[in-house]
Amino acid sequence: MSARRHALRVLAGLAAAALGACHGRGSAPGRGALVFRHPKLFGDPQPLDRLIGAFERAHGVSVHRETLPASSDEQHLYYAIHLSAQTREFDLFALDTIWVAEFAEAGWLRDLTSLVAHTDERDLYEAPLASARWRGRRYALPWFLDAGLLFYRSDLLAAHGLAPPLTWNELRHAVRRVRANAPGLHGFVWQGKQYEGLVCNALEFLWSHGGDLGAATHAAAQGLGFMRELVAGRLSPPYVTTLTEEPSRVLFGRGRALFLRNWPYAWNLLAGAGSLVRGRVGVCALPGSAGHASAATLGGWHLGVNAFSRRPALAERLAAHLAGAPAQKALALAYGYSPPRRSLYADPELTAARPFLASLGSLLDAARPRPVSPNYVALSQVLQSEFSAVLCGLRSPETALAAIERARLALEVA
Amino acid sequence: MKSHGARLEAWALMSPALALLGTISAVPMLYVVWLSLGQRAMFRPPGFAGLDHYLRIATDERFWNALGNTLYFAAFSVALELALGLGIALLLQRAGRARALVYGAVLVPWAIPSVVSARMWEWMYHPEIGVLSYLLGQPVNWLGEPRLALHAAIAMDVWKSTPFVALLLLAGLQAIPRDLARAAAVDGAGAWTVFRRITLPLLAPVILVAAVFRTIDALRVFDAIYVLTGGGPANSTETLSIYAYRVLFQMLDFGYGSALAVVMLAITGIAALAYARLLRAQTG
Amino acid sequence: MKRLGTALGLAAVCAWSLAPFAWQLLTSVKPAAELEALPPLLPSALTFAHYQAIFDGHPFARLLLNSFAVSTFATLIALGLGSLAGFALAKLRPPGRSAALAAVVALSMLPPVATVSPLFLIIGAAGLRDTLAGLVLVYSGFALPLAVWLMAQFFRAVPDEIYIAARVDGCSAAGAFARVMLPLAVPGLVATGLLVFVFCWNEFLYALTLASSIDARTVPVGIALFAGIHEVPWGEIAAGSVVATAPLVLLAVAFQRRVLEGLTAGAVKG
Amino acid sequence: MAAIAFERIGKRFGRAVVADALSLEVADGEFFVFLGPSGCGKSTLLHIVAGIEPPDAGTLRIGGVDMRGVPPQRRDVAMVFQSYALYPHLDVSGNLAFPLRNRGLAGAALGAEVQRVAVALGLDELLEKRPGELSGGQRQRVALGRALIRRPVAFLMDEPLSNLDASLRLEIREEIKRVHQAHRVTTVYVTHDQEEAMALADRIAVLRAGRIVQCDAPEALYARPADSFVARFVGTPPMNLLPATALARHAAITAHLSGRDPATITVGLRPHDVQARIAGDGSSLQARIVLLEPAGGFSWVIAELDGARIKARLADGAHLAPGVSAELTFAADAAYFFDAASGRRLE
């Protein structure tokens, strides 16, 4: 018997050593360091590290930065798991605009109202502020701003003497005109796969037809009907139902489509070096419809402080530092991500370096947040499957909107 | 070794395994049933929910859609795998010198992680630059068209799991004494009659084992489809596992999610019992 | 004629089994530009940029190490406990053993999603969330039924007289297990070890839910979450897939006979 | 060495009764054989002595000590199996050394013991070979060596010869007898082959349905079988058993019946004791020849007498063919008389 017990003891020792080694060699932060977790920033990490370096020197504390798995769904799961277990593994983290109400209600976020000076209050765009507020208190600081935009092939439109479309009819008309001479060209590509991206796209169709969740359902039905018409009428390729941000951007970037709906990040790739459509792409607000203004869904990231952090005060100061105007200006210059501050859009240095970004000022101001509620993520599951069913022609807009309404009331989403 | 001492010794040797099995599968299984009777969702007061969740399942259209998808997926994939597997097994049985090479090739799909295989097929199913559309000569919306998506997932699973079935049936074929077929041939039976009268009946128990084994795996499929399509479009490829996972880990509704999991447990449990009884009948 | 037919049939089976993996291998060495469209089936020039990228951009080496550590330790634990239990069931034949075996088989049929939420809470309570140790514990528990079942089959194949001779020749039950039964069951241990290793290496659901941070993320989760927020690097995903599959394919082909024994032990010998 | 005592041992497997209040004493140094048809649980009796199976009831003593709860490894009993049960992963010297190594013996002392037994059994050239490379006979010698080497208090042998071919069986049988006479180790031997039993045993117990039908020296079993079962089981070819009515005409038989109803009596005649000749006139017992079976120096005759079959020896010089009727003669004291119902032998 002793031989076996000895073997097990050796095994246990080996296990601890190997796992320890993995963990040790991994990115375990030092004892007192602040841990900052955020999604993968597209581009060179140096600018962000310089900003953090400045904070470290100013406060004599080391900050440990970690990036998280890609998609918003996976990050939501990761944070939900760990915060529900009251983890202390990180102090500051970037969270999607749609999580703030849920995390605040669950008591996972520190109240940051005191951090937002009145000057900031007026300078920040209304939509990001709204999505960072829950029960009248501010639980996150807007960091980046995203909004749905329309990218178009300026050369092809010009060749047919067409101006960028202001309404969805104008867009449909433009597609027919251009496609007459380029049949292989897709008309309008956007994000139709069954995931959060589809909700952003569908809400834009809905809002731009004057509809909304829970109100003006007839207009809302028209909006969803138009979405279905895009596929049924072959304005969009049938496999738009598999496209997310990148596949649609790659498709447009290879000159396979006339119009693209995407987030501001796409501009850098489409206008950058090595892009097939460099210099032949324009961007404008998404089209509206007769009598209804254009609408763009608000996206982007806020900074929140982990309620169970061991060093909340320092974490709050780091948040204020990274979400302050100077830092946001530096990040806008480095990564082309749009800051949520009106003043920066008039900043001469920024307008010179990033003219495209400067032009977005008014567009971003009009962005509309998705319903702000702790149960939004749960409602989103219903939105995703209902919108997908309408897009695939398996369900009429009316039945889908009715199902959404039932879910909305059941989940008490305002 | 039935002496009293031996019986004690046997359970002593088995205790570490039973302890680990208890904590990792038995206790969680019971715990999930208990969770399913309680209200345990974010922002809802916890409390006893009794059978509310199960009543809600009965009227949950998304559940019935997921159940339909799962059963359809399981039935079709297992049927195809058995048919193809039998064909391949018969071929493998006659593989002469190249046996090692062929076995190696056939083992590759089995060895590939299902997540990797899902990414591979996702790339092959790409509508425009995917190799399958290229071979067909025109873009096909494999994963984007509700009617096609589930069949695309079935094709992937058939490719991945047929080797396992083929090897199982091959072992079954090899267990049949060779002189039976020879005797039948001597008695004037043609290849087809030998197959139908001798090989098939004797192979039936192994076919049954392979069928039940694959059915259980197919009923609980998650990885492959979650990565291939995520359950879309329009929930056309959402299986019970994926729906339960979404409710548990995206809606963070542990009560209802657990109830879904318990229903799944029941379905695979019935299949598992069939397997256990079938096994005991075989071992006698 | 029959020889030709069989040969053609076998060639078709090999092509059908290897083609998808071969295509992925090809994609992983195709220059990025040529991945954008499909007129060029074969790459004009081979490039290892994608392999380079996955080890620089993504912590892929770390994922491989995590997967290897988790699978190896879980396999060792499952083999250790599994062979003890398998031996007891096959040779000591305690009363109620067929019921115990049936229960073990039934447990192995559990749908992972059914036990993922309670395990999530249990592993959390044990403070093992987001650690490799947590995964090792879960995987060894989940691979155990397979290990117990297979080892029971392999021990049953050893004649009873040999076990009795060892006992009569002065060994206790454990002594007979260690000195005679285990050496004779080495082929079984190798077969079971391989199947359990592949089983652990391929697992995805638990790895996704119980260990999301980089410290404990395994290869399948890495592959699934591969696409960055803003790009779908098909070349890199292909490279990642090849690297993630290489160890398993090599193992399976190298130990082919053992794997076959393991795979079929369950069904045929009954 | 030690005596082995079975005291009211009871054991059953489901419906099959292996031992039914079985009591008997195997003397120290005795070569004791359990003889019975295959499948009557003889091996289980050995397992009970070895401690592998516990008896359902009764006590087993080895060297006077009650063996309840004593595990096999502490009973100092060696066992030889029908399937040899050699350790496939060890070579011959490994197999021979295994039991002593378990006792802590090692190094030169162990090597010497292995050499001693190997030479005694003619295995010294095979020490490095694996069991798989040996012939059946060699394997059985290694099994014998493994039992011998440890000088146990008793040998238990479970039909060790039945896997060997005919010629080898005799050779190994003599080996076992020589070993027993050389070392006088108490041996309990189990077989269904009565020839083996007769050749080896000091005493034989004939088993049937868990009960000892008769326990005696081989000659006694042959000469004074306790009942018709033992009579037919011991001795080859098996004894003829005929209803007394078939031999009513034979003077000696009718005299012996002395008034008892022939229908209740069965007569036993060993084939060796019956001669067959061409039927002369007025001979007392005539039977129709069915078959002739040459057996080397003489031939067996199978004849039909009043519906019952009987086997007899062809008298020297006699020429018979099937279909012919022959005269059967036997000495009066060669006949055995059994109670037809119980089979018990009648004096």
Task: Summarize the structure in words.
The complex is a heterotetramer of chains A (414), B (284), C (270) and D (347). By secondary structure, chain A is an alpha/beta fold. Chain A has 2 domains: 33-146 and 299-365, 3-Layer(aba) Sandwich (D-Maltodextrin-Binding Protein, domain 2); 149-295 and 375-410, D-Maltodextrin-Binding Protein, domain 2. Helices cover 49% and strands 12% of the residues of chain A. The radius of gyration of chain A is 24 Å and the shape is globular. The termini of chain A are far apart. Mean pLDDT of chain A is 84; it is low at 1-28. Chain B has 284 residues and is an all-alpha fold. Chain B has a domain at 60-252: MetI-like fold. Chain B is built from 12 helices and 2 strands, in the order αββααααααααααα. A two-stranded antiparallel ribbon of chain B has the order 1-2. In chain B, strand 1 (38-39) and strand 2 form a beta hairpin. Chain C has a single domain (19-269), classed as MetI-like (MetI-like fold). Chain C is built from 13 helices and no strands. Chain D has 347 residues and is of the alpha+beta class. In chain D, 26% of the residues lie in helices and 32% in strands. In chain D, helix 2 (92-102) packs across helix 3 (107-120), helix 2 packs parallel to helix 4 (136-148) and helix 4 (136-148) runs parallel beside helix 5. At the B-C interface, helix 1, helix 3, helix 4, helix 5 and helix 6 of B face helix 1, helix 3, helix 4, helix 5 and helix 6 of C.
CATH fold-level label of the largest domain in chain A: D-Maltodextrin-Binding Protein, domain 2
**Backbone shape of chain C:** globular
The overall number of domains of chain A is: 2
Number-wise, the strands of chain C total 0
As for the number of domains of chain C, it is 1
- Assigned CATH superfamily of the largest domain in chain A: Periplasmic binding protein-like II
* Second rung of CATH, namely the architecture of the largest domain in chain A: 3-Layer(aba) Sandwich
- Approximate helicity band of chain A: 40-55%
How does the helix and strand content of chain A classify structurally? alpha/beta
Count of DSSP H/I helices of chain C: 13
Helix content of chain C: over 70%
- The CA-CA distance between the termini of chain C, in Å, is 37 Å
Give the CA-based shape of chain A. globular
Low-confidence stretches of chain C: none
Mean pLDDT of chain C: 85
What is the fourth-level CATH superfamily of chain C? MetI-like
Q: Largest sheet of chain C, if any?
A: none
Secondary structure tally: strands of chain A = 13
**Chain-averaged pLDDT of chain A:** 84
* Oligomer status: heterotetramer
